[in-house]
Amino acid sequence: MKRFVMFFATLVFGVTIAIFLARLMFPLPDISDRGQARALGVDPETPLGRMMIAGGAAHPGQSGVIPLYNGHDALVSRLALVDAAVQSIDMQYYIWHGDTSGMLLLDALDRAAKRGVRVRLLLDDNGIHGLDPILAALNARENFQIRLFNPSPLRRPKMLGYAFDFFRMNRRMHNKSIVVDGAVSIIGGRNIGDEYFQLGDDIFFVDLDVLATGAIVPETAAVFDAYWNSQSVFELERIVTGPGDPAGFAVRVAAVKDSTEAAQLQGAMQNSMERFASGGLTPEWAKVQLVADDPAKGQGIATRDQLMITRLGSILGRIEQKLDLVSAYFIPGQEGTRYFGDLARDGKTVRVLTNALNTTDVPMVHSGYTKYRRELLRAGATLYELKLRGEMTPEAGFQVNPLGFSGGSLHAKTFAVDDARIFIGSFNFDPRSAMLNCEMGFLIDSPTLAQGIGAIFDGPVATVSYRPELTPEDKMVWQEIRSDGTRVTYQEEPGATWFQQIMLVVMGLLPVEWML
Question: Where do the PLD phosphodiesterase domain residues begin and end (predicted)?
Fold first, then answer.
């Protein structure tokens, strides 16, 4: 026993020394001389500014909102706003891929900067794999500034940075927002990548954004400023050295413009423009509140009152009748399970849609969810688990009904309360969103949008998901209603192999829920 204790102590000492030396070799740069920058106010001389001012005058104190259910609409809206920018573009994202949508948006931002628009791009360093040379090239351009959130000072291999700075790098900026000319913003659950915009033939993410103008936009811009100037954020040039690869960027852009995905997007743009022209995508004016984590959360020093989950609870107030919740990653924990269970036991309707095992992109999260599933069902909550429904068809990309599910893995984060208010944002009901990642979203007073989420649960959810239930003997089964009306009962986790079921149990035993 003594020998084991000595070995363990020696190991801990060795690891501590290694971490200390690694931090000396790869330190974070000093940012004490970094300049502070602020959002540019809305300019009535810009087209978007005139639109915002006119709408605000007709609807004082309110914001005009358009939900973006369809992935193509979501991408086209972003591209259109960037192309319409005259004064400024502020974008903040967790993941930015170098695929068709990612390169098209970077190209649009580059063109905006060249015509004199101030572009500020704030990216989480965890989600920009392989883009260092391209981002460095863009950052060197006039009017184009890029900063990174909680970056790894070690670029190759970047993930090795976790070994000597885990507790900082484990905190990520999960926010997703864009503000153009201080007049229009888009926030929601979508990152920048083809799977979020229904491009290509792979399984895509079912997600939701909201486009907004009016009173909420200056607040959204202020949140961007708070993060842009926070202590967790570093200028790209202090982290990524060298001039970048402008020629490589030009080649990549040319390649994606000739791709089948770009051709697919051309058809989507036509469909989106037709919906806008026909009035199918017109704003609803409503009271909107922005809820966001304080950037101090990225350093692990935020107080409870600075956390989004605390602010969200105080804003929501009492739930009178029902809660309809859509969360891609749902791990309520003991406190959340007690809260949702108390609502159900009190006679409130509690309905939750999350991913099934065969649709989630993070199986370990599913193992965390399964710990609380039985207790929620006993309390009277209704659970649905989105099932895999075959390959995506091109037609699915043009689905305009709320949260068109065909062929997708759930990624949306939204909930509706009492058919009166709806939240749309980046926040998942899991420990990572609550305590580690920085999040944001809009709480919208809109019976129309809230009832739309309720209609999803009343209608299509039953046929696109499995419904776990408890038998009188307290055994869990899953009910499936197929498209032809056939009902099927599963005695085990649907779509799971015996190996996956064993792994669920094993992963559920690991003490990692606080990170999920």
Answer: 169-196, 406-433
Map tokens 């959130």 to a residue: 149
Check: CB of residue 385 under 8 Å from CB of residue 53: no
Q: Which two tokens stand for residue 236?
A: 């790209």
Are 352 and 204 part of one and the same domain?
no
Question: Where residue 52 sits, what CATH number does that domain have?
Answer: 3.30.870.10
Pairing of strands 88-93, 288-292: unpaired
Domain shared by 339 and 466, yes or no: yes
pTM of the model: 0.92
The three-class DSSP label of residue 105 is: helix
Per-residue pLDDT tens listing for the chain (516 residues): 666 556 555 655 555 565 655 565 667 888 888 888 999 989 999 999 999 999 989 999 999 999 999 898 899 999 999 999 999 999 999 999 999 999 999 999 999 999 999 999 999 999 999 999 999 999 999 999 999 999 999 888 888 888 878 899 999 999 999 999 999 999 999 999 999 998 877 778 889 999 999 999 999 999 999 999 999 999 999 999 888 999 999 999 999 998 887 887 777 777 776 766 665 668 999 999 999 999 999 999 999 999 999 998 888 778 999 999 999 999 999 999 999 999 999 999 999 999 998 888 888 888 999 999 999 999 999 999 998 764 433 333 333 344 544 456 888 899 999 999 999 999 999 999 999 999 999 999 999 999 999 999 998 898 889 999 999 999 999 999 988 889 999 999 887 777 877 777 777 777 778 776
Closest CA to 374 of 471, 248, 235: 471
Note whether residue 244 is domain-resident: yes
User: Is 102 in the same domain as 243?
Assistant: yes
Among residues 76, 87, 90, 91, which one has the least CA distance to residue 47? 87
Q: Which domain holds residue 339?
A: 289-515
Amino acid identity at 474: D
Query: Contact 350/338 with Cβ under 8 angstroms?
Result: no
| 241 and 381 both lie in a single domain | no
Active-site residues: which are they? Answer: 174, 176, 181, 411, 413, 418
User: Number of folded domains in the chain?
Assistant: 2
Q: Are residues 440 and 459 in the same domain?
A: yes
